[in-house]
Amino acid sequence: MKDAFGLPQSLLVLGGTSEIALATARRLIARRTRTVWLAGRSSPALEEAAEGLRRLGADVRTADFDALDPDSHESALGKVFAEGDIDLVLLAFGILGDQAEDERTPARAVRVAQTNYTGAVSAGLVAAGALQAQGHGSLVVLSSVAGERARRADFIYGSSKAGLDAFAQGLGDALHGTGVHVMVVRPGSVERPQTPFATTPEAIATAIELGLRRRAETVWVPGVLRVVMAALRHTPRALFRRLPA
Amino acid sequence: MSGDTVSVIRPRTHEEAAVAVRACGARGVVARGGPDRALGDAARNAGGAVLDMTGLDRVHVVDAAEGIVLCDAGLGLHRLAELLLPLGWSVPAFPAARHVTVGGAIGADLHGCAPDAAGSFSRHVVALELLTADGEVRAVRPDSELFGATAGGLGLTGVILTATVRLLPVETAYLTVGTERAADLDDLLARLAAPGTGRPHGYAAARIDLTARGAATGRAVLTRAGHAPRAALRGAVPRARRRPLSPRALQLLPPVGPLGSLVPAGIRYLAAPRAHPGRLRHLSVFRHPLDTVSLGGRCYGRLGRVRYQFAVGHGQEEALHRIVRRVADRRCPSARAVLQRLGAAGPGWLSCAVPGWSLALDLPVALPGLAAFLDGLDEEVAAAGGRVGLARDCRLRPDLLTAMYPRATDFRALRARLDPRGVFISDLARRLAL
Ligand SMILES: Cc1cc2nc3c(=O)[nH]c(=O)nc-3n(C[C@H](O)[C@H](O)[C@H](O)COP(=O)(O)OP(=O)(O)OC[C@H]3O[C@@H](n4cnc5c(N)ncnc54)[C@H](O)[C@@H]3O)c2cc1C
Ligand SMILES: NC(=O)c1ccc[n+]([C@@H]2O[C@H](COP(=O)([O-])OP(=O)(O)OC[C@H]3O[C@@H](n4cnc5c(N)ncnc54)[C@H](OP(=O)(O)O)[C@@H]3O)[C@@H](O)[C@H]2O)c1
């Protein structure tokens, strides 16, 4: 059960090795979180991530989950929810792809779309259904600033995130008033710290904690991106094309 | 928390309540005394069912000679008082929290503000009927284990259907209300502990001025009130003399008084008379300091506020000092604090009433770092052997529960025996694994 500050006691991470998700889990364990489920494709990295969180005192379990296999989502997440209420589901899986390579090999581009968008649609709906049945909880969706406006440099990834973002917003509206809260998080880049508006997993974790307390619907990290992207969204195409990547 | 999906059922008879309990789904049921006042999560049940008890509000038997009433649990204390006053009886723990229902007063073991004489509400309960998980109705007597678990048990042992309550005799429907200023916390504690404060059903509560720091930390306006004896009405308004027990409607006071609760504590302190011996107020217009604290909720922003209430025993004044100082040092203009002295311990296993001091704080949720700050206060309270009250709680650190409530283990064991399927469950029970 979340407390008055929106701090969850149990957490389910979809994409259990995600750096951002693990930073968030560490932050929440320092607060109220005692139970953590890391769902992902089973790998030594997943076990290692679980072990790392256990050292912080949480009860951590792993679950098999593959975004590319939507047919399995119902049973995979069903097993987790059968063990007890989940206060927070963090939808963190996603792949960046390689724009140049993906343009040459459409099948690879489709994998990006299937992971980031269709996989998330399926997992998001399953999670939302389970949360609605328990009558409370938050679904936090890691979107990206790249989804706000497609750019030459990463429009395959960007378009998949745009789809995810629109889906999550609609889902949030659909669940409004049911006690389930959906929060869309749009971080800048973690990978390239030298770019403007770069961020860190820890900063994203802080923003998520604050967003939970405020029951925010959209969170930008860093926060100034909200204004920057509002301007960029209205920049004429001819000019937008010429902006540095 | 707010807006969780629940189905609210409002039973009109005991049978309807029993049917609702038997038919509740996998996410269980909990009783609720009235409208959701959204401070704590004890009367909430996300995804499950809530029994709104206000439909069960009949008075069954009044023994006007002995001062005993048998009534339904959904009856509001103000309604009960209205009915009994003309007969010369008053309700325990009244007039603080007048909107509270009889069931809610037992479920939260309402500690009145009448220190030594009266104690918490459950001490005045002679018997109650409890609808348990198996759909049976049990008669529960104060000497039983089930009573200990039910008083202050937050609705987790079952649904209280009726209660037999011992009343307090009064001669008039008037209170003598006096106010005085206390220059700092020590002065305040001394005044609250002074003999006379504890005379039969006298109330004393102080609104602390949290804007005062340094030597003045803890300065407060203390309100004392006691039921006026008949003799006190001499020379008062003629109407009062003619009908000393006139009932008048004791309905709820308006949510925010004309200005009342919005006046900052600093100004309130300076505006209060240094000492006011007391004047007569009819019960219907007496406003308890706690009422003004809780009901002036509009200045806390969209996220609202948290109620933090705790009790520490006598001899733990040092801890009380530290906590008041810490809160004052946070410099939160909209914070409010009310201090009361508690009398005898409540009979409930999870009752917060211990002989000592009770401090109720209201703080805005949006205050940065408040979650961690209150966690710190939890530790301070636990170290002092105190308890954080559960009735309005929405954030207590679960690992400190057994330290504060040694009988929590017994409570869990009794629940496992009485309610193996976990029919009675609330958000609070989930959060604190009760
Ligand atoms: C303005 C104000 C002043 C207050 N002053 C004081 C004070 O001076 N001293 C003090 O101790 N507290 C005080 N409180 C807190 C008070 O004790 C609780 O708010 C009170 O218990 C609420 O009663 P309710 O009828 O609204 O019940 P609820 O808040 O609905 O329920 C309280 C608990 O009792 C349970 N319950 C309710 N009815 C039943 C039933 N029929 N059977 C079984 N369980 C039931 C609920 O499940 C819940 O756990 C105050 C609160 C407010 C808002
Ligand atoms: N990093 C950034 O700069 C940035 C910026 C904005 C938004 N985001 C978004 O934030 C999220 C997390 O980012 P991150 O940097 O923490 O990512 P990360 O460390 O690269 O982790 C990505 C996670 O997704 C999982 N995953 C990929 N494909 C999967 C599949 N088919 N099934 C199940 N899980 C799969 C990975 O699991 P495996 O270990 O099994 O591969 C890994 O756990 C992503 O959605 C990302 O798009 C990131």
TrEMBL record, chain A:
InterPro entries referenced in this protein's UniProt entry, alphabetically = NAD(P)-bd_dom_sf, Sc_DH/Rdtase_CS, SDR_fam
The UniProt entry, under PROSITE patterns, shows: ADH_SHORT
* SUPFAM superfamilies, per the entry: NAD(P)-binding Rossmann-fold domains
Which terms does the record give in the GO molecular function aspect? Answer: oxidoreductase activity
User: Is Oxidoreductase among this UniProt entry's keywords?
Assistant: yes
Which UniProt key words apply to this protein?
A: Oxidoreductase
UniProt lists the family membership as follows: Belongs to the short-chain dehydrogenases/reductases (SDR) family.
Put simply, this protein is called Decaprenylphospho-beta-D-erythro-pentofuranosid-2-ulose 2-reductase
Native source species? Streptomyces monashensis
What are the leading ranks of the lineage?
Bacteria, Bacillati, Actinomycetota, Actinomycetes, Kitasatosporales
From TrEMBL, chain B:
| GO MF annotation, one | FAD binding
Which InterPro entries would you find in this protein's record?
FAD-bd_PCMH, FAD-bd_PCMH-like_sf, FAD-bd_PCMH_sub2, FAD_lactone_oxidase-like, Oxid_FAD_bind_N, Vanillyl_alc_oxidase_C-sub2
Residue stretches making up the FAD-binding PCMH-type domain: 1-170
Q: Which domain of life is it from?
A: Bacteria
Protein name (database record)? Decaprenylphosphoryl-beta-D-ribose oxidase
Native species of this protein? Answer: Streptomyces monashensis
Q: What SUPFAM superfamilies does the record point to?
A: FAD-binding/transporter-associated domain-like
